[in-house]
Backbone:
């Protein structure tokens, strides 16, 4: 009788210790699955859109990819077509072309020719206009627009805001 209750107590104590051990292991495993804070932060790039100059192409980085940012000039806005305009990202009244700087054909980085106001992909001769639309094949589609969210003067690449969602839903970008 005495032995039985002792065995029962030992069993419960062992079970409790094992339970704590399993819980500890699960917590440790969960921590190792979660991305590090630095990795999470690396998924987003915040751009201050007030610093760009009209007509000047700046190449930013997002998740290791080049991202073209071009603040359009008044002449560009004036002469652009409806489909070019649909790709505009408008922040505090300024119109921007923001696109992943990789050719949609085979992924080369197109160069911007300021005088021609176009991007030329040297790999196979593809061309894109200042809005990122294809003007000469073989690229199969316009330059992709990265997911973005607008917050005041800032554009957060990697977050999905209503403006990006609308572009994606209407097929303007992938
Ligand atoms: S990779 Fe750009 S045209 Fe082929």
Residues:
């Amino acid at each position: 009788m005495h032995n039985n209750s002792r065995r029962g107590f030992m069993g419960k104590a062992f079970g409790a210790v094992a339970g704590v051990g399993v819980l500890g292991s699960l917590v440790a495993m969960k921590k190792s699955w979660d991305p590090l804070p630095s990795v999470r932060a690396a998924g987003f790039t915040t751009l201050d859109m007030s610093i760009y100059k009209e007509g000047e192409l700046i190449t930013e980085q997002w998740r290791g990819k080049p991202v073209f940012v071009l603040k359009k000039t008044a002449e560009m806005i004036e002469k652009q077509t409806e489909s070019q305009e649909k790709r505009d990202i408008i922040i505090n009244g300024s119109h921007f072309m923001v696109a992943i700087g990789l050719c949609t054909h085979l992924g080369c980085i197109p160069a911007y020719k300021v005088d021609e106001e176009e991007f030329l992909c040297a790999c196979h001769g593809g061309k894109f206009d200042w809005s990122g639309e294809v003007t000469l094949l073989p690229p199969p589609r316009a330059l992709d627009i990265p997911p973005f969210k607008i917050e005041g003067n800032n554009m957060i690449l990697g977050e999905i805001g209503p403006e990006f969602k609308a572009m994606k839903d209407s097929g303007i970008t992938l």
Observations:
- The chain has two domains: 2-34, 41-169.
